[in-house]
Amino acid sequence: MNPNELNQRVSAARAETEARGETFYPGPSRIHLAAFPPKERWDDWVEIESKSWPKKEERRYMLVPTTCFNCESACGLLAYVDRETLNVRKFEGNPEHPGSRGRNCAKGPATLNQITDPDRILYPLKRAGKRGEGKWTRVSWNEALDDIASRIRKAIVEKRNNEVMYHVGRPGEDGFTERILAAWGVDGHNSHTNVCSSSSRAGYQYWMGMDRPSPDHANAKVVFLISSHLEAGHYFNPHAQRVIEAKANGAKLIVFDTRLSNTATHADFWVSPYPGSEAAIVLAIANYLIQNNLYNREFVRRWWNWKEFLAIENPELPTDFEIFEEVLRNQYKSYTFEYAAKESGVDSRVLEEVAKVVSTAGTRFSSHNWRSAASGNSGGWQVARTLFMLNALLGAVATEGGVYPNAWNKFVPKPIYTPPHPPVWNDLTWPVEYPLGMNEMSFLLPHFLKEGRGKLDVYFTRVYNPVWTNPDGFSWVEVLNDESLIGCYVALTPTWNETSYFADYILPMGHGSERHDLHSYETHDAQWLGFRQPVLREARQRLGEVVNDTREINPGEVWEENEFWMELTWRIDPDGKLGIRQYVESKEHPGERLGVDEYYQYIFENSVPGLKEKAEEENITPLQFMRRYGAFEISKKVGAIYEEVVPEKELEDIRVDRFSRVYTTTAKPSSTNIVPIASPDPDEDGRRLVGVKVDGQILRGFPTPSGRLEFYSRTLAEWGWHEYAVPTYIKSHVHPDNLAEDQTVLISTFRLPTQIHTRSANAKWLDEIAHTNPLWIHPSHAAELGVRTGDMVRVETEIGYFVVKAWVTEGIRPGIVACSHHMGRWKLTDEGQKQMMATVALDHQGDEWGMKRKRGVQPYSSSDPDTLRIWWTDVGVHQNLTFPVHPDPVSGMHCWHQAVRVKKADPTDNYGDISVDTDKSREVYRKWMRMTRAADKHSPDGTRRPYWLMRPLKPSRKVFRLPDSEELVGVE
Ligand code: SF4
Which among 238, 486, 848, 883 has most CB atoms closer than 10 A? Predict the structure, then answer.
């Protein structure tokens, strides 16, 4: 539908609604959708009971908002709580949510399957036999909390802070648990980001000092995606709906994906390059813009750090913009379409046509790379870096239809307490070899533990399943089975997973409608805050009940993490003598533990601009407002913050350096909500970077060391990677130069859009839609191998092999194969999620591991009659077990693409067979470690890591110093 038609429909709907004497209800979606129950009627909404048909039986509901937890997008959900039974009957979209605007993907409504899952874990469990033996005993929360708290307390008292680690997959919250760890004084935050997105983050961070893009797809003229955004990419549903909006308005959609993704099927240009060649193509497009003067000269002159580049790299040249332009032309002239065609295998005429389309976009050019090529290849971070270079050339940065830095399109409120930065540095997560690693080197943990770099006394996982999610899962099994390396493993999980079988405690935590969290994401050019809440708690409170503990309303003894972490913290320091308890103490009732109502009430009353006033309009408190509507839009059309003039009051005692950076002694910027601070802590002379002088004015700029967009990264140049200081193309580890004759590339970085990593194993609606992951093979390749769809093939990696079925399709580049992750779930015993986990037997001798499938899934009887209707047996194959670790030497990202040999399966092979040699995986690990450039050899200032780079749970500045460093510059 074009915009005119849409407007006409909206006007007609308004007229019709008002003619009936009803209020027209556009909501934040600005589109009248009659299906959205108006918010005024959320306390008592009536629907006809579908199961009573043809009898028209009325059902009354209370509609309670929460936030979906089934991917990172944090879309709004509305729980339909039956007023009679107080059970949730369904979840639909929340029209009050500015990001999702009432819409969800299939995984949102499937939250109902998760909360009614007959196999879910309802009570705390403690290991009863040996690790991994599958014997459990039910324990009380008190017993579990006291045991875990006393271990953590002892570790802290004995100064073994680094032996406490919290390893999170999907956080789904903004910093709550990081602050808990900071309160304990441990540098124990570990994330999954280096097996997910740190490569793209690196590419963006080196340009703009913020690690994610916020593309304004809806208003773009050209949308350029390097990943499958409409089905499985970043901010899946919120972005998908805006990409489609752009297309409806006539925008051109360019998609780079070696496989025909759902997104590619909507593209005007689907480019299927050889994996890893993406940056070469993007640079050919950049070169086309540069050589033909099709870039935004004024933007480049004002906002690129070209003066710094010339001064440092070409000191003999005058610092003139025209000179820089000439250098730029020379720098990129070798990236011709012919060169890109040679690298990518895509016709140079197609690439030229794409470049011409890009050149027409002007400042309405939205682009996005997340995971995909960046996460597949060594040097993949240059994919994001070169892609953003197109925006930087076109001046499409923080413009309507362009790309914003994420920090300007999200909102993180100040919490009730902010504990200090931990005074320790954890080498198990931030090793010296990766000074520029974007995130924790999480997937190397088993190797580090085996090498004796440290050990863990208490190890938590949360929404994380490293044995299944990470590469090299058997190395994880080996360390989890070794109690001298991991003393106590606590799995916080709502469902059974492959890693939890090796736990000492399994603690049941709530799904998306059973817990509190706050979050805000860069879904479009706006700032909003979403509130996840236990919906039955709110429903009961609306009925006048007092609920003090979320366990009172959750099934069994399922808890939520906010209350869990606060209680655990309280028990670590019961008398407050360690100085820890103060960060979870009630301000209203000193001496008592903080509760979630007080925690969120404080934030909503004190830290969210405009919320108090909005709530007052309805005569309710800010907390009641958020419990009632689930989201609040703080601002729209944020604009180009970098062009804002810095107010006089922030410019006390300024110093301007030779590259026009402006430093001040003023303590803080006037607004810290959207103004990123390049240097939040004072520099060596007591000043912090406040802005940058551009054409005589002091402007906010970007939070990079130069204050500008960094075409030239002095950080990369100074920390040992001079050859990558400007955007460039790095040949991937799967480049044809690096493959043997009989090897090809396996792409494993995509997923089916209806599975949720670990937590959808019993989401029956999703399982019925998608439950297998065959190997995509082009017909020409299949003919060479002599295989047809359904035949079994053996895929050999560097450390083993897996056996999977073939799917012959033209939706993949000839010669390349692909297999979706999110599949191949397994369990060792009958305990577990029975709808999507096969039962397997492990065979283990020395370093050699084998897995054989005993049986697939089958119908079974449970409290849900649908489990007797399970018609599928296949659950796919767990390919990640056969992948060794490939840590990118710069970004630290695991490079997922695999060099493999694909063959027809042997007669003795069975579907799902897996074989791995962990000795070989150690060899591969060591090979990649040899490529690193460690801080102790390459640090320019005696520190472990550039202080300005982002780091979750940043420790205190003094521990950035390398232990034996003599040259200490810029540290306290
Ligand atoms: S995109 Fe789907 S899974 Fe993700 S938050 Fe939205 S509804 Fe949930």
Answer: 883
